Amino acid sequence: MILVLLGVNHKTAPVEIREKLACLAPDPDAAYRRLVALTEVTEVMYYSTCNRLEVLAATDVPDDAAAAITEFLSSHPELPPVALRPALYQYREADALTHLFRVASGLDSLVLGEPQILGQIKEAYRLATDFHATGALLNRLLHKTFSVAKRVRTETGIGGAAVSVSYAAVELAKKIFGSLAGKTALLIGAGDMAELAVDHLRRQGVERTVIANRTLDRALALARRFRGEAVSLAELEAQLLHVDILISSTGAPDLVLTRDQVKAAMRRRKQRPLFLIDIAVPRDLDPAIDTLDNVYLYNIDDLQGVIDANLQFRQAEAVKAERLIAAETLKFLQWRESLAATPTIVALRDKARRICEAELKKTVGQLGELTPEQLQSLEVLTASITHKLLHDPILYLKRNHHVRDRHRDVDLTRRLFNLDADDAAPEADAD
Amino acid sequence: MTSLPLILALAAYFAATGVWLTYLIWSRESLYAGGRGLMLTGGVLHTLYLALETLSRGQFPIASAGGSLVVVSWALVTVFLFFMWRHPVKVLGALVAPLAAVLLCGALILPRQGQLSPHLQSLWLGFHIIAALLGNATFTLAFLGGLLYLLQERQIKSKKFGFFYRRLPSLDTLDALNSYCLTLGFPLFTLGMVTGSLYAQHTLGTFWRWDPKETMTLIAWLLYAALLHERLVKGWRGRRAALMAIGGFVVLVVAFVGANLGLSSYHSFESLRRLP
Fold this sequence. Notes:
The complex is a heterodimer. Chain A is α/β, with parallel strands linked by helices. Helices cover 55% and strands 14% of the residues of chain A. Chain A contains 16 helices and ten strands. Chain A is elongated, with a radius of gyration of 31 Å. Chain B folds into two domains: 1-114, Four Helix Bundle (Hemerythrin (Met), subunit A) (Up-down Bundle), CATH 1.20.120; 116-276, no CATH class. The interface between A and B is medium-sized, with 24 and 20 residues.
């Protein structure tokens, strides 16, 4: 059985092609009906995100299967095969494994190390099993994929450092305040980035949200959204006494807060730390504020600098992840080698023979003096018992099943008789 | 008196140093837990040695440089273990374990013989020493915490994050450590001074002699008192508190090392043996 993976992603296909391909996927019912019907593939599943569509298959006739899947992918009426072909990539065997592991770990994502892709693949796999499209090989492979992705996440820092402005702000806030529970955030102005940051802060435990805006209407609307309080810009100085994190994002041409204002506020707030984030251009907050003790001011460029550094950190960690994936690919291929029926039958007989020898040795020791004839009939007895016992299972394994079933049977046999004693049972998905 | 428990304790501190430095690099929880076990083992052995030594001599072993280093490092480890339990700052171990190991090395190298003058053999003296040294040890943690605070604050203020940014705890955690150390260390330190002064009145007939060590200690006490006061009243914290903790510690080191070895102080090892 050969693993084949075909697909397109954000690197090979422009969005026009990807969005058309995505139309093939929204109805999994139809898609799987077509894929399962393909006689060339034995096991199959696909996953689609906004950045990729990939079909993974196990087959005995890889060339035919690749052709059939290509045909499936180019079946969109508005998408001529000519347009798709250059964008389409195909991986087999070790390359397909590595690619799948890399995708699931976020190494192939637009934002290096992003975590959503793993959930999307899990969901896609659940769907594939609903349609009984997968078998022993893909089942084992996908569970392995989930555990590899999890290892990459826990053993490398690939997902560790924030790579968006709002997350970088949350991360910094945590390095300043420790826990965000019970803290108050103040949003001055509005804007997508600022609102997203407030959103993240609230999810990380920030308790109170205060919204200040030039127009009270807008402030009230935002306050409703964040279940916070609306105040007018005139109350800013008074509010400074109670907030811990301030995000400013106004369109004002002048400074909204000066160093003296903040300095006075710090005295009155007994030096409790203040984290100021200035996302506005031109800037809202006096850069000199940063010279005050216990006040931390970050503007949009500072945050961008943090993100760039974090991306570099992720790239460095990605090298570790690649190493881990290479090792896991090798391990999986070794496991699959063992799936063929013949070695399994040999292993089964071998195990029976070893048990016979061991038991015979024990019994002969207890029986005392035996004639060679008696000894021989004992040997014949044990051998024929095990032979007869194993006769039917072996016959069953040898029977010419459909390939998918044979893999399942071989896998089951190996586990039933514990033929891979040093190999643990397939990891259950712990999520 | 066998020094075997002491040597084993030293080995445990060195092992904890290695494990915790690795933890600093790799940030694996299992490493931290391993270091904790080693440190705890070392602390128990260290205490055992000190108890046996005190029982067999009938006095605290502080009349020699080696002996007093045993007590100093013991106080440091004891206070650190207490903080590890109540207010853990995980990376602190990577600083405390080597410090304890180095102090204990000094204890093993330097002479540990020397009997106290009979005038000084009293339970009160033990009380004075334990309170003062536990206070000093707590301030040592405040000093180390202060260094970590300055390091982390520098990274956040400069907006350039290096090796330590990810590995050091939040500023709030480090500042809280400063606060806890102060509220625990100050009463201990004060108690050490008061008991010492009362005992001096009892044996030497005077509460206070303006001995160099006493003067330095008073300066340190005033520094810490000022810091505690400003923390409580004006809300001093962060960088200033860290700097004060570092400054206070420098004074303490001068008081301890200078007075016990060089300066003509009745706290020196020489006079501890000869007094009155």
